[in-house]
Amino acid sequence: MVRIRMFLFAVLLASLCSHWAYAVDTEVTELALFEPSVADFGRRAQTFNGIGFNDAWLWVNLIDGAGNRYFCLRAHGVESSGFYSMIKHGNGLWGSPTTIKGMFPFFDYDSLYTSVTDYEQNQGGTGHTVWNYDQNPLYTPFAISLSPEQIRWTEGDLVDLTFTSLGPGLKWRVPGEPDDCGYTSIHHSVQGTFQGKSVTGYGGYDRAYLEQGVGWIQSKQYRYLEKGWLVWSGLNENGGHEYGWTVMGPDNWGVAGFVRQGGASVVTDQVTREIEVEWNENVVMPTKLTVHFAGRTFEFTPIGQLGFPIADYPLKWVFGSTKEIGGPDLVEGFSMLEIYKTDMLIPPHCTDGDGDGYYAGGEDCGEADCNDSDPTIHPNAREWRMDGIDSNCNGIDSCGTIPLDGQQTKGSIMASLTLYLIPVGLIYALRRRMKRTVSTS
C-alpha cells in the first residue's frame, strides 16, 4: 500500500513538473531568402500560416559629412509605437554614446513618444503606412511608408530617410513549445537627412510574427533563442553590395544568411561562433566575434558603442565592421552587434552567486568578487572601518590586515571589538566621573 501511495505521489509530482516546466522546441523551419510582397508589409500579413504580425523594428546606422555616426531605431506594432532611440555613436569601445532622442523603460519620455498609431494600406495598394494620430501638440508627427522596394521614414523635422532594398530578405520560423514564432529581416541602403544634415548609411526592417495572445517580450524567440544578433551590409571592392545576418542562441543554436550581389547566397541553421571579450573593472565588452556557417567565416571587429548609454546594461549594442575571411574588402559599410552579457559574454565558469554584478572564477571574470555569497562585499563596495571585513576586496580592512578571501577570523573579530570597545569604555568612564563630580559638589 505504501509503495502504491509513493507511486501515485511520484506521478502527481511529475505531472505538476511537466505543467510548470515545459520544453523549449528549437527546430528551425521555413528558413529561406525571400522576396516580400506588398501584403507582407501589412498589419494582417500572412507571411507565416497560422501566426500573425506583432512587432516591427526599423533601424539604421548613418554617417554625415563631418564623419559623425548615428544609430536610429523606431519600433511599431499593429496600433502603437512607443520604443525608439536616436543616438550618436560613442568614441571607442569604452566611450559612452550620446542620446539625442529616446524612449526606454529607464529613460525619460519625451515628445517623440507616441502611443497610438494608425496602420493602413495605401490607396492604389502599392504599400502600407504607419503614422501617429496628430492629437497632441507635444507629439512629433511621424510616418513610415512601407513597400517591397522602398521604405520612407519621416519624424517631424528631425528624420527624413529613404530605405532602398538591397535584395531578398531572410525569414525563419521556430514552431512548437512554448509558442510558435516567425521572423523576417530585410537589408537596405539609406540616404536622406537627419537633424537637418545630409546622411547616408545602411539599415533594415525586421518583423516578428507570433501566436495570438503572445507579445514579443513573452515570446520564445526573445526569451530563449535570440541572445546575439549580428547584421552587416556594405559595398565591396568589386562594386557590388553584400549583406548578412547571424542570430545566435544557447548551445550554438542559430540561423544565418549571406547575400553577395553577383555571387553566392546561403542560408543555414548550422552556426558556430567564438567571442573574445575585454573587462574594465566589472564591465565586459566584446572585442571580436567570429562566426562560421555554410563553409564561410566572418569576423566582426567592434569600434564603439551605439546604444544604451549605461555602462553595464545587460544588452550591449556595438558597431564595427564585418568581413568574410578570404572575401573581397568593403569600401563602405556598417555592422551592428546586439548581444546579451550574461548569455554570451560571461564565461560559464564565472559565477555571480550573490547578484551584485561582480564575478568569481578567475582572471577572465573581471574584478574578482572576494565573497560571492554576500552582495555587500565586492570591489566597489563601501569599506566600513574597523569591522574586521574586507568589504571592497582590496585585501585589508580600513584598520588592520585581514584575510584576502574577505572572511572573518576570531583574531580579526577580537581586534575589531577591541578597537570599538576602547573608545566606548573611555566615554563611559568619563561620564561616570562627571556624574560623581556633580554629585559631590
Please tell me about this protein's structure.
The protein is built from 4 helices and 22 strands. By secondary structure, it is mainly beta. It has 2 domains: 25-345, Beta Barrel (AttH-like fold); 361-441, no CATH class. A hairpin with a 2-residue loop joins strand 18 and strand 19. The termini are far apart.
The CATH class label of the largest domain is Mainly Beta
CATH H-level superfamily of the largest domain: AttH-like domain
Number of self-contained structural domains = 2
CATH topology of the largest domain, by name, is AttH-like fold
From the spread of the alpha carbons, the general shape counts as: globular
Largest beta-sheet details: 13 strands, antiparallel
Q: Please provide the ordered H/E string of secondary-structure elements.
A: HEEEEEEEEEEEEEHEEEEEEEEEHH
Q: Give the class from helix and strand content and strand pairing.
A: mainly beta
Strand content: 35-45%
**Overall pLDDT confidence:** 81
Beta strand count: 22
- Uncertain segments: 1-21, 105-109, 400-417
Radius of gyration: 28 Å
First and last CA, distance:
88 Å
So, CATH architecture of the largest domain? Beta Barrel
Report the total helices. 4
Percent helix range: 10-25%
